[in-house]
Design brief:
Blueprint lengths: L2 H8 L1 E13 L4 H7 L5 E13 L3 E5 L6 H9 L6 E6 L2 E2 L6 H9 L1 E4 L13 H11 L6 H14 L16 H13 L5 E5 L7 H18 L2 E5 L3 H7 L2 E6 L2 E7 H6 L4 H8 L39 H5 L5 E2 L3 E3 L2 H5 L11
Parallel strand pairs: 3-8, 3-9, 6-7, 7-8
Antiparallel strand pairs: 1-2, 1-4, 4-5, 9-10, 10-12, 11-12
Length: 347
């Protein structure tokens, strides 16, 4: 790792270690008894570990169904992990038992959801929506003080204080996402989990929201866990990028280094799917095949059925994380030095 990266990792706000989540998708008990069926478990997240330095953005990318949104929900506590640890500024969430212990940590993290049309209560005025975290965490109690704070938050995200009297349906999609951001900021959090916050918006509006989020990060010192499938968005906003495949983190590292020198074959394939506007003529490997079912994932490396560099070891043994100059990669081909330079066509 680079010296700057080591220094950043020393000031870690969020640490995820060995995170796993299994969902029970079995048929009803009566069906299992009558038909002799077994329980069926879906492995959504499998041994994921990463750290987020204070004031930085760590993005998770991957195809649909790879588990990145499940990681987001685990981090904020919407799901309980099957195993693993989630530590926020030294506080292990699994060890917090009483409301008195949980409340201070919950106040420091908030979530911005993907769909601004579904995440805002259509029956509430905007001022009430934004004021709810302030009241829930007992940050302010005076009505005038709460109203003033709501006005400040609306102006901070590029809206007018008077917009608090309107209902969500009176705003465009981008404006609704600004309201969602204002609501997330109402409890004065340090850590925001952003689950594809721009995917439901037009491209021009996406850029506005991303620029707003970067500006707020600089102004307030926020730390982001950013979930996205859009590599252009991830490149624009990220300090670190993690690539997920079928519940596992196959590679992570500094954003610029990962985009310039991807190590894992899957990362290379994702980047090769981006149109080559400069027409360099570099050989590209398209992403072939489909993601296997997480109910019955392949043995060994989950990516081996689609990997052009897979060998016998890949089919029987799951790779362990290997340190690189920019982060880590889990790949037998990288470990054994048999991965050709990017752009070379495999035989």
């Amino acid at each position: 790792m680079s010296e700057a990266m080591v220094q950043e990792q020393a000031d870690v706000l969020v640490e995820v270690e060995g995170l796993a989540k299994l969902f029970d998708v079995s048929p009803p008990l009566l069906n299992r008894l009558l038909q002799g069926q077994k329980r069926v478990l879906l492995s959504a997240v499998d041994d994921v570990s990463f750290r987020i330095p204070r004031g930085k953005t760590f993005s998770l990318v991957g195809e649909s169904g790879c588990g990145k949104s499940t990681v987001a929900r685990l981090v904020v506590g919407l799901h309980g992990p099957t195993r693993g640890r989630i530590v926020i500024d030294g506080a292990d969430l699994a060890k917090l038992r009483t409301q008195a212990e949980i409340a201070p940590v919950r106040r420091r993290l908030q979530m911005i959801f993907q769909d601004p049309y579904a995440s805002l209560n259509p029956r509430w005025r905007v001022a009430g929506i934004i004021a709810e975290p302030i009241r829930a965490h007992r940050i302010l109690s005076d009505r005038k003080a709460i109203a003033a704070r709501v006005g400040e938050l609306l102006e901070q995200v590029g809206l007018a204080a008077a917009d608090g009297e309107k209902f969500p349906h009176e705003f465009s999609g981008g404006q609704r996402q600004r309201i969602s951001i204002a609501r997330a900021l109402a409890s004065n959090p340090e850590f925001l989990v952003c689950d594809e916050p721009t995917s439901a918006l037009d491209v021009s509006v996406q850029a506005q929201i991303l620029n707003l989020m970067k500006s707020l990060q600089r102004e307030l010192g926020l730390t982001y866990l950013f979930i996205s499938h859009d590599l252009a968005v991830v490149y624009h906003i990220s300090d670190f990028v993690g690539v997920m495949y079928l519940g596992r983190l196959v590679e992570w590292g500094e954003a610029k280094a990962l985009f310039a020198r991807p190590q894992h074959p899957y990362t290379r394939m994702l980047l090769d799917a981006i149109p080559d506007l400069e027409m360099t003529g570099r050989a590209r490997i398209p992403v072939a095949g489909e993601v296997p079912s997480p109910i019955a994932p392949p043995p060994g490396c989950h990516f081996h059925p689609r990997c052009p560099f897979a060998e016998a070891r890949c089919r029987r043994e799951a790779p362990k994380p290997l340190a690189t100059a920019a982060g880590e990669v889990s790949c037998h081909a990288v470990e054994e030095g048999r991965l050709p330079p990017r752009g070379a066509v495999p035989r």
